[in-house]
């Protein structure tokens, strides 16, 4: 395959038969998922944001409780961001929730509460990239717009034997052009969902179930016996590791100290037991600095363990330091002192939930 960013559809590829076989299979075999109950663009939007980087089975209960709590764009727009983050707690990638919340407010303010069905208007909303835009326009508004994610690139790379590296960002545009060329204009909703479903259930990354694939006769890779070799995907760089101390402070009344993370960056606006980089302090230096900085005396418990959390780009290794205040005033540090029961009301990232589980405090 050349390096040019253009893929020509083979002359012998029967678009109409491919569309019909895929759509028929999808309508016969599609999973019963809560966001497929209707074509409400708001519900579809929420589901697509939740499904980014998250498995379907994980998303279902989150989607149901989220829609029960915020059944319309107005309900979500009126909600406090901390409440929204608490509803999202455990799903990860919290910028998705913040962007969705902000974009829904824009829909209420600028579009009379109606999710726009216009491509240019939809793209203006925060957090809506080309995939989400295509999914909403095709599924909710029956517009023939491609919605290309990893599943779709895998399916089409095999069907049309496309040997471009799907790990490269520019390749996605190529696949969007390919899907736009072969998709059904009569039923773009079923076509796009059919490609996604096929990638999820049949055309899997490893051991694709080609013998029961509804589009097997259209698949160039199957015909050549090279389906296991596609798609081509270079490996991502190894994740870097970062080491931290989590300082879990308890005052004489049994309250825990938590603080809010910054408004920008990783895990923005979520709550945590304070983290300190081990690149700056060892434990002894950290405690000395803290006691001097805030005029307190800490009694440190030993053997508090460690938690590890893997993000998409970095691995955190956190040593837990539990420290009781034994003398002096409560330190004048920005945050909240709360009892154990109230910890449940604040939105914490998964890494902090792991920490609480380790300490048996939640």
Would you give the CATH topology of the largest domain?
Endonuclease III, domain 1
Order of helices and strands: HHHHHHHHHHHHEEEEHEEEEH
Low-confidence stretches: none
CATH class descriptor name of the largest domain: Mainly Alpha
Q: At CATH's second level, what is the architecture of the largest domain?
A: Orthogonal Bundle
Distance between the termini: 55 Å
- Estimate nothing, just give the exact number of structural domains: 2
Would you identify the CATH H-level superfamily of the largest domain? Hypothetical protein, domain 2
Q: Tally of extended strands?
A: 8
Average pLDDT reading: 93
* Main sheet summary: 5 strands, mixed
| Shape summary | elongated
Please compute the radius of gyration using only Cα atoms. Answer: 25 Å
Subunit organisation of the chains:
single chain
Strand content: 5-15%
Family: Belongs to the Nth/MutY family.
Catalytic activity: Hydrolyzes free adenine bases from 7,8-dihydro-8-oxoguanine:adenine mismatched double-stranded DNA, leaving an apurinic site
Keywords: 4Fe-4S, DNA damage, DNA repair, Glycosidase, Hydrolase, Iron, Iron-sulfur, Metal-binding
InterPro entries: A/G_AdeGlyc_MutY, DNA_glycosylase, Endonuclease3_FeS-loop_motif, HhH-GPD_domain, HhH_base_excis_C, HhH_motif, MIG/MutY, MutY_C
């Amino acid at each position: 395959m050349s390096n040019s960013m253009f893929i020509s559809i083979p002359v012998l590829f029967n678009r109409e038969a491919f569309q019909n076989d895929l759509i028929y299979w999808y309508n016969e075999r599609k999973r019963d998922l809560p966001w497929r109950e209707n074509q409400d663009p708001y519900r579809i939007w929420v589901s697509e944001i939740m499904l980014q980087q998250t498995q379907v089975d994980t998303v279902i209960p989150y989607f149901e409780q989220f829609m029960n709590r915020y059944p319309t764009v107005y309900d979500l727009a009126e909600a406090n961001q901390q409440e929204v983050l608490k509803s999202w707690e455990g799903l990860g990638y919290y910028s998705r929730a913040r962007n969705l919340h902000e974009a829904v407010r824009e829909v209420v303010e600028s579009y009379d509460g109606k999710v726009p069905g216009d491509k240019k208007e939809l793209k203006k909303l925060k957090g809506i990239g080309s995939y989400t835009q295509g999914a909403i326009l095709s599924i909710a508004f029956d517009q023939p717009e491609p919605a290309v994610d990893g599943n779709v690139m895998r399916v089409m790379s095999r069907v049309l034997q496309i040997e471009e590296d799907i790990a490269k960002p520019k390749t996605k545009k190529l696949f969007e052009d390919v899907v736009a060329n072969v998709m059904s204009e009569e039923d773009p909703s079923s076509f796009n969902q059919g490609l996604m479903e096929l990638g999820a259930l049949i055309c899997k990354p490893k051991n694709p179930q080609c013998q029961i694939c509804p589009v097997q006769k259209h698949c160039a890779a199957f015909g050549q016996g090279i389906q296991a070799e596609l798609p081509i995907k270079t490996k991502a760089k190894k994740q870097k590791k970062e080491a931290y101390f989590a300082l879990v402070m308890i005052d004489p009344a049994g309250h825990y100290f938590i603080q809010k993370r910054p408004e920008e960056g990783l895990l923005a606006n979520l709550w945590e037991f304070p983290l300190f980089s081990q690149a700056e302090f060892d434990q002894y230096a950290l405690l000395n600095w803290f006691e001097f900085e805030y005029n307190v005396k800490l009694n440190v418990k030993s053997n508090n363990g460690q938690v590890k959390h893997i993000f998409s780009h970095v691995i955190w290794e956190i040593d837990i330091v539990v420290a009781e205040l034994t003398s002096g005033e409560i330190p004048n540090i920005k945050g909240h002192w709360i009892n154990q029961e109230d910890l449940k009301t604040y939105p914490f990232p998964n890494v902090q939930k792991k920490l609480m589980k380790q300490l048996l405090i939640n």
